[in-house]
Every structure is written in structure tokens, then in C-alpha cells.
Design goal:
Blueprint (H helix, E strand, L loop, with lengths): L1 H9 L3 H14 L4 H10 L3 H7 L14 H15 L8 H24 L4
Protein name: MULE transposase domain-containing protein
């Protein structure tokens, strides 16, 4: 079942994704509880747009890789957390909302303004 769900997620074409969803439902039609859960929690269009590759801009798909996530995690630890091992959740939230968000807002403004 997990392999089929991953296959659905990685379809780059919405028609192929919809076909894969139908095939998934047909293959696992005896799993009534799971299919009801899937249809209610994961299949509505506004939700499917959040997790299916077919709704991600091809330019942004490069950011969905594990290497990108690992790189970002490393930057977060080195640049923003300065290698300090702190288990306080409120400090992490403060850094993310005040420093990291500010950085990305500035970077976005530079990109939109073609100024670097």
C-alpha cells in the first residue's frame, strides 16, 4: 500500500495521478476503513494540492529532495542556532519567526526587485 501511495505522490501529471488514485482504490477496495479515511483526509483537491508532485511548479520540485532539506537543516543549525544545543522550543520559534522569516522576506524582495 505504501508503494502505491508513493507512486501516486510522485506522478508529475495530474491525469496520471488521478488514474493512479483510481487504480489504488480498485486494488485496495477491500480496505473500507482506510479508503474512507483516504477519501476524507487526503483526496479532496485542496489537500491533494499540498502533497502531490503534479501540483508543484516544476521549478520548485528541485526543493522537494532530501538533499535540499538536509542543506537547509545544516544552515539552520550553523547560521541561526550557532551550534548551540538548546532544547527550548520557544527559542527555536523565536529564531524562526524573527531571524529566518526576516531573511527570507529580504531575499524575496531582492529577487522581485532584481537587486541581487
Amino acid at each position: 500500500m505504501m508503494i502505491a501511495l508513493k507512486d501516486i505522490m510522485h506522478k508529475e501529471n495530474t491525469n496520471a495521478m488521478n488514474d493512479a488514485i483510481q487504480q489504488f482504490k480498485n486494488t485496495f477496495r477491500d480496505q473500507h476503513e482506510f479508503l474512507n479515511y483516504f477519501q476524507q483526509q487526503w483526496e479532496p483537491l485542496h489537500i491533494i494540492q499540498c502533497w502531490a508532485y503534479s501540483y508543484v511548479d516544476p521549478i520548485q520540485q528541485v526543493h522537494l529532495t532530501n538533499n535540499f532539506i538536509e542543506s537547509w537543516h545544516n544552515q539552520l543549525k550553523v547560521i541561526y542556532l550557532k551550534h548551540i544545543r538548546n532544547k527550548r522550543f520557544d527559542r527555536l520559534i523565536f529564531i524562526l519567526t524573527n531571524e529566518v522569516e526576516f531573511y527570507f522576506q529580504q531575499e524575496r524582495a531582492q529577487i522581485l526587485g532584481n537587486s541581487g
